[in-house]
## 1
Amino acid sequence: MFNKISIIGCGLIGSSILRAVEEKKLASKLSVFDKSSHVNSYLKKNFSSEVCSNISEAVIDSDLTIIASPLSSYKEILLSIKANLKKDSILTDTGSAKKEVNKIIKNISLDNIHWIASHPIAGTEYSGPEAGFSELFKNRWCILSTDKEVSKSKTSKLEEFWIKLGSKTKFMSFEDHDYVLSLTSHLPHAVAYSIVKTAINNEDKFKDDVIQYSAGGLRDFTRIAASDPLMWKDIFIDNSDNILKVLDNYSKNLDEIKNAIKNKDSKKLLEIFASTKKVRKEIIEAGQDTEKPDFGRK
Amino acid sequence: MFNKISIIGCGLIGSSILRAVEEKKLASKLSVFDKSSHVNSYLKKNFSSEVCSNISEAVIDSDLTIIASPLSSYKEILLSIKANLKKDSILTDTGSAKKEVNKIIKNISLDNIHWIASHPIAGTEYSGPEAGFSELFKNRWCILSTDKEVSKSKTSKLEEFWIKLGSKTKFMSFEDHDYVLSLTSHLPHAVAYSIVKTAINNEDKFKDDVIQYSAGGLRDFTRIAASDPLMWKDIFIDNSDNILKVLDNYSKNLDEIKNAIKNKDSKKLLEIFASTKKVRKEIIEAGQDTEKPDFGRK
């Protein structure tokens, strides 16, 4: 599909792309770069693709360069690879926030490079190349964002790439992406961190009990709150405007419940709970979850 | 195991007990009562046990009476069955809050009845007798609470009953139960309702997008926020003291994250996220969740 693909950053996401590209033979040549020597020796041991020790060499002659590293590393990476990016090639990423990254790329003014942002909405609570697997993107959405001037043939080519990895694709502006994701993903993460921190207070004599009985709801939050700290720190900083706005709305909704509990206001509580119950139905209908009780956990 | 068992209230939990008792033949006779005529006709069609139209008759001669209806219905139920409860029999329930219920029972002063509270930590987001299944309690905790004067042989008998249903049992005081559950279950539910209400604003033009991309975190909250409204309204009112205390601590932790985002304080964010990541490991080690990415969802 491509003559050469380069992957910069080989953690959970990068190594899953690497696995899928090798398995599905989507490139004649594949080069990977990761700044960690631990990751590099793991890659050399487990994959046949070229593992580069120099980032600027990794992208030479590449038709598709994929940045799959934390958002805060983009600027340094882009400055290191800029001179060696192949003319008329595609540059993409896998980051969870887009507006700030897009600004960085515009400021660097890449010449004759087709920048199309990708956000595969896929992941687990594990990180590192050992955690990757080729089916990670299967049946998952991948949101693509680009400026109008990028050629249609290049966006179609990148779209086709994600479809080959098993994803469903959708185009969205950089701004809309960041707002929608602040609701579907960034807000839930902020909340999950707070709830786990509240529930598991190490000085509390009930700490062991809380862990023991976590199946009553808490368990589902701990998975979210176990996501890669470095990645999430970057997302919260890059998308801070949206997240802070959304958190303010959230606090108002929480206060509404708090007041209803304080006033033992049955009617209000029932009204809130009935409205959120309806949403679940819509999510099932949109094919975004299974009906199976407890997600098929054993 | 028992000569006769009575189940008052036959929704998700009651009907799952009914199924398990029939399947495992834990009683020679089983009577059920539900105030809903819809439930009654479903029960008559699908089960061989006796479906009573009169609540006080349902408990006659019963060695184990199980109340599996919303907390707010207990008082009326207890007054209706009090006179017909068999002497020296066991009375239990399946409610998610204990302290207030225990007060009600003490005030009614049942004579020669062994009141032992049960809380099977099991459930799905579905309600009604159609949603029940006999394996609901398998490998789940069931917390038992009782006063010291209740005879050891009766508590052992009830413990054995839950073990036969597949549960693991643990004894906890009424007060400790309510505090631990406010952290592991009631706080997560309050938060889930608020987050779903924030994310799915029907006037927002991005509503469909939010549902479409809910796999990024939101999805997991919608399941919790879809639980039975009536049941949760009662829990929030019965356990309001603990829940309000815990919600205050939670708001403080959320403010800490908000401020770190506002100040773009990377160090603080990393510190918070690393602390919650550790908790996940402890939950896996306690056997309370599977390592499987995405809970084995398809």
Note: Residues 292-298 of chain B have pLDDT under 50 and may be disordered.
## 2
Amino acid sequence: MPFTDQLRSETSALYTDLYQLTMLQAYWREGMDETAVFDLFVRRLTDRNYLLACGLEQALEYLEHLSFSDEALDYLDEQDQFDPSFLEWLSDFAFTGNVYAVPEGTPVFPDEPIVEVVAPIGEAQLAETFLLNQITFQTLAASKASRVVQAAHQGGTDRLVADFGMRRMHGTDAALKAARAFYIAGVDATSNVAAGKAYGLPITGTMAHSYIEAHDAEMDAFREFSDLYPETILLVDTYDTLDGVRKVIAMAEENGEDFRIRGIRLDSGNLAELAKQSRRLLDDAGLEDVMIFASSGLDEHKIARLLDQGAPIDGFGVGTKMGTSADQPALDSVYKLCGYAGQPRMKLSAQKSNLPGRKQIIRQYEDGTARRDVIVTEDENGHPGAPLLDRVMTDGERTEVGAARPLDAVREHAAARVSELPDRLHTLGHSEESYDVVLSDEMEARLNDTRADLHEAMREELS
Amino acid sequence: MPFTDQLRSETSALYTDLYQLTMLQAYWREGMDETAVFDLFVRRLTDRNYLLACGLEQALEYLEHLSFSDEALDYLDEQDQFDPSFLEWLSDFAFTGNVYAVPEGTPVFPDEPIVEVVAPIGEAQLAETFLLNQITFQTLAASKASRVVQAAHQGGTDRLVADFGMRRMHGTDAALKAARAFYIAGVDATSNVAAGKAYGLPITGTMAHSYIEAHDAEMDAFREFSDLYPETILLVDTYDTLDGVRKVIAMAEENGEDFRIRGIRLDSGNLAELAKQSRRLLDDAGLEDVMIFASSGLDEHKIARLLDQGAPIDGFGVGTKMGTSADQPALDSVYKLCGYAGQPRMKLSAQKSNLPGRKQIIRQYEDGTARRDVIVTEDENGHPGAPLLDRVMTDGERTEVGAARPLDAVREHAAARVSELPDRLHTLGHSEESYDVVLSDEMEARLNDTRADLHEAMREELS
């Protein structure tokens, strides 16, 4: 089984919550197989001015390959909750619906559907858990990385950002998918070799303290490593940072024209101060081309502070805080029934509502800047702007626009779309004035009508 | 490929940071293959009074099966950094070292090695990323869940706790491994069907709002679902919680002796108030046996508050906040070189130090309560108490004590060891008086000697 196919494994249909399967059986038994509309969206933003949609590719791969293996069916049979004829029906199960989605790398806002699934209700329901799992987490990762990249590019300089987060991320799937999401958001490379292979990402790395410590002297380690990797980045802070820098300078003097070390890495202490002192030592020795990389507990705020302090840092290795989106480790994402059998549906529970029916998002521009989004009903015309939802799957098959896209194209799309956002959304702080997402008159009317109908139905049921 | 074997896939050796591979080549080229000692430990605790060690089983599976497939070697070959004869050597690579570890489900504290790897330096180095990735995340998950279970069992009542977190956890591996870690920590069941299958965990679930909404009336949905699943738990808050409860009561009156509904679930609104009102309605109707389950943004603090308010809740569905360990989404875990070629090693960088050499942890008890841990050198005798580190692998093969253990045994071990901790560590708040972890005189002397030797060596190198 090829590596990237792991998630298409024989039991992928079991990557779901049990209740999706019990509800599926109930729908099957009740003969409820009319078309449902489900929206996947985020209810609110906390400490983010926008989200960067991500994870659609894995969602579509899943829907294309969703099936129940014999092994999965045997397991379900053991649960004593499923009828043999239902399990028989599951053995032929496939996703046959339509999917509408915002392209990966597009900024999105609360209430806007990132994915809209239109399918027989049981199929759409079953997919909820995996779709939420992948799109929530990947959108979270891309959104965090977009901020880190924003901070690192302060003043228009494209400083390098590398993902060093694998060791403290939540498992292997997180490490793979986040490395991909980070790249889409503008991160330049990852240390994660498996992610490099799976997605064709640039991989990068320097050296660890343990390598230095295993040698009798720091200088021996530097010489050996750069002999093997002449353009490497040397980690200089194992014992004393500036002593480490002086050793690099001594090597340059020894090696003359053969000296090709690309940079040094600082991983502890006062990074701003040490970067300045290191820069001075290197420059005084004529080593203006030797770059300074920094790592150690970095996030967008620390990077911004370092650059504000004038730290001459050329690249950042960012680990745990980006890798776990530490300040905001989950999004308030949901997957809500918006329609069934041609009728709009919604939930009335306080603060857990949704927009009924199918819809489209229109992004409206002024002078090249995105000014507001209008959520309209699916068949409305007359709203100027760019529609965001594409039809990416028809009857369970990908459409042309739903085909897998080269990652570099997604990355370019993300950079272009993020740059179109109003400047106030590019700040790391919370923008006082949030981006406007409004409902069209028709959508507003549908919302009110649906709510009124539901209240009426409740009254009838109770009377 | 069987499902639980996913991580033994042909490319598992690529689940690493690139620098582990470049360092491995450097060690190979330099002929450095003497034995290294690496400790995996957590440097400090934030908002936790103890950690529950978890993830060893996956770490050992990885070390047992670690190898480079042809596909992996081809990928490395494309990177233009690796010598063909090194890649040839990798094709026969296997982990041949010894491993010492604290059993899964054991409470641990800062500086205590959870795993100690003793192996040829390149082998031990390569394993760093995967071991940190799995043990950090799983220990994080078990530690968070231990607090949630503690809160739910307030007053000595074993209220149920179910993991509902898959949808917002960080990918599929996180959802699988955390469900296992939660079970070890005392969580009773998971909604994640794949985790149920992979690890034999009890799986559970109720119904979603969308199921109710897809029916014309809430009562129809209740009747259909309970006809199929007579002992189900009905979600009552889709439209109006107490109206929902009254419908359950009406069903009980309709069905008489055949009524077997196990409970109701509340998922929005003022849970304490709604639980009390629901309990009253149910009790007045003679339905004392119908349990009340609650979900919606729960964590240990919210559960404790609900119970403090006297909410008559019998079980909790806990999702995102436990699933992402939201208040603390990573541990400050590290994997540090402590010895090489028989010599103790350490890093001098400020605040990033480690204890040199091999070691043992002795847990000392008074009247059945754990009073303090002493970190001793590996060959010390004469410290009363229970040693925590077992030898789980010898020459790359599991020892008897390192064999996979039944999950229920691990869960029982965890419950017993957590209950032995001093009461002050069982509070959800930060215990003012932290648990004592001290160094033996011999360990203290080794630390001082190693530090002095390193300073001396630095002086010599610079002079």
Note: Chain B has two domains: 3-141+329-462, 206-296.
